[in-house]
Amino acid sequence: DNPDARNDTAAQLSKVAAKAEDDVLMQLSTRSDKFVPWLNAEEPLVRAYTACILANIAFLEPGQHQVLRAGGVPPLVRLLKAKDDKKVTLHSTAAIQNLTYKNTQCCQAVLEQGGEKA
């Protein structure tokens, strides 16, 4: 796993996700299980880009479920609590907001991780 390649890939995907139409977001959402591990990357920018990707995916209800199934809530809440990088915190916050919008299952998952204290 090449950190530079991962950084470049995450950066490009975050730009795509930010401007994507719903059908592209739906395609990206099916890869949520590939993105979630990047939330544990050493590089803060990779974590920030990945949280941005997941925030955009979670803008749509089916995307919320994909991120939840991929195990995205625990690392997003952890990043939110850590507050170790402004961009990571900003994008993690957006991801949690989008995940929990009108979605009780995602809200419950955030509460189970202590997200209300973040």
Would you mind describing this structure in some detail?
The protein is built from eight helices and no strands. The mean pLDDT is 94. The chain starts with a helix and ends in a 6-residue tail after the last helix. By secondary structure, it is mainly alpha-helical. This is Armadillo repeat-containing protein 1.
Structure summarized in a few sentences:
This is Armadillo repeat-containing protein 1. This protein has 8 helices and no strands.
Per-chain topology:
Blueprint lengths: L2 H17 L2 H8 L2 H4 L8 H14 L3 H9 L3 H10 L3 H15 L3 H9 L6
Helix pairs in contact: 1-4, 4-7, 6-7
InterPro entries: ARM-like (IPR011989), ARM-type_fold (IPR016024), Armadillo (IPR000225)
Pfam families: Arm
Protein name: Armadillo repeat-containing protein 1
CATH class: Mainly Alpha
Q: What is the H/E order? A: HHHHHHHH
Mean pLDDT: 94
The structure class reads: mainly alpha
Q: How many helices does DSSP assign?
A: 8
Radius of gyration: 13 Å
Major pleated sheet: none
Beta fraction: under 5%
Oligomer: single chain
Distance between the termini: 30 Å
Q: What count of domains describes the coordinates?
A: 1
Give me the count of strands.
0
CATH topology: Leucine-rich Repeat Variant
Helix content: over 70%
Overall geometric form: globular
In CATH terms, what is the architecture? Alpha Horseshoe
CATH superfamily: Leucine-rich Repeat Variant
Unreliable stretches: none
Key features?
118 residues; mainly alpha; Leucine-rich Repeat Variant; globular; Armadillo
